[in-house]
């Protein structure tokens, strides 16, 4: 991988993401200011912005200009931020720390956190519906893609399956099914944004990109489980303290650490293989896939 090229791509996309998020989030000066503060507190914290990066990278593979993807990339990040707020609530994981600082309900209060999550979710669809530089059909398909991916047959469904499975023994297929929905659906939707922005994609190319995203989503989750076991050595990880929940079903717990690492590597290789037909245009997707496998937090 050409590290300089990846760094330049990442820096450019992250700058676009931060400025779009700042622009579309309501200012604290507007009422209800505490709610707007909670929304900005969560979204503008230091996330890795993997999903926006994937949307821009898929757009590059499709020959779509970056500015057509500003809103779609930000919309996936808003859904992700809402899911983190709700996942951290006492009724779910009851976490005190997120991204190295107090979770939204700790920094504000539970009711404000619930409402901030709700408002982020609806804002995601609003900015997609209003997105400039895209044809109406692309915007409608994006709204459809993101709503399917985040609803009861996507991310929310995965969370429900995860809660239902708590305390019961899981095999790899069951764990995989949870993660395909809980984490994978939104990763897949991020890549779909690039396809939807283009509109006239050859079906075979759309399927290959989707297969790339499915493999990557699972590899991402397995790597996350590996980091839980091996320890997150990043500054955020050290201060946040990744909480290793011993009764939680994870890939290393089910197949062992060595096999989990092999699985993440195999899936990343399969993701790369799906990109072959795209040549150099898919390099940003390749860089993101490698960076996810090698990440330290
Ligand atoms: C509560 C509606 C609802 C959904 C919850 C995605 C999710 C479903 C919960 C998040 C909890 C969690 C740890 C899921 C595993 C996936 C994962 C590693 C999420 C964290 O995503 P990153 O690493 O986070 O992209 P940053 O902070 O970098 O944005």
If you had to describe this structure to a student in words, what would you say it looks like?
By secondary structure, this protein is mostly helical. The protein has a single domain, classed as Orthogonal Bundle (Farnesyl Diphosphate Synthase). The protein has 14 helices and two strands; from the N terminus they run ααααββαααααααααα. It has helices spanning 3-24, 33-43, 50-61, 70-88, 104-107, 110-129, 136-150, 155-165, 172-198, 203-230, 235-240, 251-255, 257-274, 283-294; strands at residues 97-98, 101-102. The protein has a two-stranded antiparallel ribbon with strand order 1-2. A hairpin with a 2-residue loop joins β1 (97-98) and β2 (101-102). α4 runs antiparallel to α6 (110-129) and α10 (203-230) packs antiparallel against α13 (257-274). The longest helix has 28 residues, at 203-230. The protein is globular, with a radius of gyration of 18 Å. The two termini are 20 Å apart. The model is unreliable at 235-244 (pLDDT under 50). Bound molecules: geranylgeranyl diphosphate (GRG). Residues 47-48, 50, 80, 83-84, 86-87, 92, 99, 155-156, 159, 182-183, 224 line the site of geranylgeranyl diphosphate. The site of geranylgeranyl diphosphate has 16 residues, from α4, α8 and α9.
